[in-house]
Amino acid sequence: xxxxxxxxxxxxxxxxxxxxxxxxxxxxxxxxxxxxxxxxxxxxxxxxxxxxxxxxxxxxxxxxxxxxxxxxxxxxxxxxxxxxxxxxxxxxxxxxxxxxxxxxxxxxxxxxxxxxxxxxxxxxxxxxxxxxxxxxxxxxxxxxxxxxxxxxxxxxxxxxxxxxxxxxxxxxxxxxxxxxxxxxxxxxxxxxxxxxxxxxxxxxxxxxxxxxxxxxxxxxxxxxxxxxxxxxxxxxxxxxxxxxxxxxxxxxxxxxxxxxxxxxxxxxxxxxxxxxxxxxxxxxxxxxxxxxxxxxx
Length: 297
Prior knowledge:
The longest helix has 24 residues, at 36-59. By secondary structure, this protein is an alpha/beta fold. The protein has helices at 4-18, 36-59, 82-90, 99-110, 130-133, 146-157, 162-171, 185-194, 209-215, 228-231, 238-248, 262-271, 286-293; strands at 24-26, 33-35, 66-69, 76-78, 122-123, 127-128, 178-180, 198-203, 224-227, 255-259, 275-278. Residues 1-34 and 116-134 have low confidence and may be disordered. The strands form four sheets. It has a five-stranded parallel sheet with strand order 9-8-3-10-11. A two-stranded antiparallel sheet has the order 1-2. The two termini are 29 Å apart. Strand 5 (122-123) and strand 6 form a beta hairpin. Among the domains are: 1-59, no CATH class; 79-177, DNA polymerase, domain 1 (Orthogonal Bundle), CATH 1.10.150. This is Haloacid dehalogenase-like hydrolase superfamily protein. It comes from Populus tomentosa (Chinese white poplar).
C-alpha cells in the first residue's frame, strides 16, 4: 500500500515536472525567491525516479498497462525537410520561393487560427458552411484534410495549381516520404506487447495516417489508432487521449503517452489523466521507454 510519504512524493514530482515556466518562486517562510527552472534541473531526476517507484509500489514491476505514441516527430519523421520537398516538386509548377521563404510562409500559415481564417470550407455537395468557417475550434484535419492542406500549400508556395497540390499530397502517403525515428522500434514494441502492455498511436493527422502506417509496415505493431480526423478532436484536447484509452479498454491513470510536443503531447495527456514523457527530453529511444515501464528488452 502506498504510504503518505510516497503520495507526497508523487505530488512533488508532478510539481517539478510541470514547472516549466521558469518563474521566480517564493520560498515558504522566507522573503527570498529562487528560479523554478533551477529547481527543476536539480530535482527532476530524483522526482521522476520517486514517482516511478511509487507507481511500481501500486502496479508491480510493470508501471503502466498501456503506451500511447505520437506519430510525427516521435514514431516517424519526414525523410527530407518539408520546404525542400515543396520546392523540388513545385519547380515544375512555377514555384519560385526559396526553401527559407517557403519555411517561413509555412510557419505563418500553420500558425493561423484555422476556424477563424477567411477560408470557407466546402462540405457536402460543395455548399459553404459558415458555421464551420466561424468555429474557432474547428479541427485542421477533418477527414482527408484537403481544405486545410490546400491552404497550407498555397500559402507556403504561392502556387494554387491543383496538380501541384495533388502530387505533393500523394507524396506524403508514400514510404519514401518518411522514416522511423527509432530503427529498433519494432523489436521494442514486440517486447512491450508480449509483457501485456497495450499500444496505440495518438496523432493529429488526417485519414492518410492508416495507409501510411501500412506503407511503413508498422500498422500491426499497435492495438489501436486514435487519429484526430476520425475522433474530431486534436491534441492537446484530452478527448483524443480518452478515445485511445477507450479503444484499449484501459483507465487513463494506467496509461503513459510519449510525444515530442510539450503542449500537445505532455499537457494534453496529463489533462486527460494520463502520465506523459517528452520524447527527446524525458526519453530518447523506445528501449528507454520500455525500461521505464519495466519491460526488459
